[in-house]
Write a structure and sequence with these properties.
Keywords: CBS domain. It is built from 6 helices and 9 strands. It is of the alpha/beta class and 141 residues long.
Length: 141
Amino acid sequence: MTEKKGAVIKGIILKVKDIMTKGVKTIAYNKSIKEAAENMLKEKVSLLLVVDGSNKPIGVVTRKDIAFRVIRKSESPEDVMVAVIMSAPVSTINENLSAVELGKFFGEKKYKRLLVENDNGELAGIVSTTDMLKAVANNKI
């Protein structure tokens, strides 16, 4: 049986990069909500990273945003742009942060997901409370 203490397995401290999701899907800020919904369905994701004209992250849009900020208000998804309903600004953490520290951060800040940057400040992925749950279920934590 493997000895576990917090997020340590066999003396290895799990880091954010060990549990994060790589390959974050993006959408331009000036695209319509209809396009965002189509992309989410095509890519089978519940979140898109919103980028500006320089491809820099400026926000996120989720299925929940579309449901509550567009559909519930009876607005036309073709007429509402992503920039209008996105959540901004985005918060980031470093991929080398320990999973234990990530758990504390989620608890204190009330975030459900965070963008992950590498040591060069480049986007490496996204990590969510669901990723932490998967890590627990798969005996990583």
